[in-house]
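Researcher: Hi, I'm a grad student and pretty new to this. My advisor asked me to get structures for two proteins we've been looking at. I'm not sure of the right format, so I'll just paste the first sequence and hope you can take it from there.
Model: That works fine. Here's the first sequence with its structure tokens right after it:
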Amino acid sequence: MNVHFIDTSVLVNILDIPNRNSHREVVLKEYEGLKNSQTDTLLLPLATIIETGNHIAHIRDGNIRRSKGKAMAQMLKDMANGVAPWDYYEGEITRDDLLYFSKNFPDMAMKGTGIGDLSIVSAYNKYKESVPAIGFIRIWSLDGHLAAYEEKMTTKRRRKR
């Protein structure tokens, strides 16, 4: 299984958000391959949903804002009903995560990483620690500091008894 956490920089290209979609062709090409794959799992973190919604809410043209808002609303509905090409990664932010953010945010802020990105990194780490049989995991992002999170996982085999 290959796991891809979708970052805002990718989702805004998929949804074709004006002024944030300059990599649309490249993203859509990869997206088409991933969503039709039997071995790839796409996960949408809460931060990506919130940040993308904020970008839509700040579109100047009201007609485009409404259209993209409806597209995002349908995406959320499809995801909740299990018919979207990606899943929502639940169990993301706990009290322990808040403590993790409080410990790491000052240094991460100095590197230009916000709380949203930090929460995606946290979800990525939790997922890879808790889900067995991952062959590859990454944060699918166009931002270099998040795109650096990718690795091949070694699967541990149980001995036969």
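Researcher: Oh nice, that was easy. Here's the second one.
Model: And its structure:
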Amino acid sequence: MLRYIEGPEVRITENDGIFLDLEFYHTKDKLTALEPHRLFPKSGGNRYVTLLNSEGEEQAIIRDVANLDEDSRRAVEAALDEYYMIPRITRFISMVDTFQIWMWTAETDHGTLTFEVRNHVATVKPLYDGRVLITDASDNRYEIPDYRKMDPRSRKMIETML
């Protein structure tokens, strides 16, 4: 039975990294080891988060994480941050083209990373607010929060790809 969560009727706690436990106050029902996923990962933010059991079956949907109590909200946000970890690029060190396969080295909020970009026209997506989403050849995702605020050298490097 799929349940919709408005906020105050549940308590959500962490259960090993990206998993959560859910307890309904009124019925005392408890669901364990649920994995949160955003139903609208690019546009929805923390609204409409589904909770899946170990078989991948939808158990509940949180309409808006902001409506949860503070401890539950923090648990859900931490699990989502872990699951949707996307390194944010702060500057580019190099972009080298070898037979139309680009090797990029960038500084990110998770350290210096080197990754391969094949068809930059299809895998580098500029958004209206200055953000840039990048998917590498291994299907890993990266984000530039606002390319217009990067240092001049990095900005010049990425602008050739947009």
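Researcher: Is there anything I should tell my advisor about the second?
Model: You could mention this: The first strand starts at residue 3 and ends at 5.
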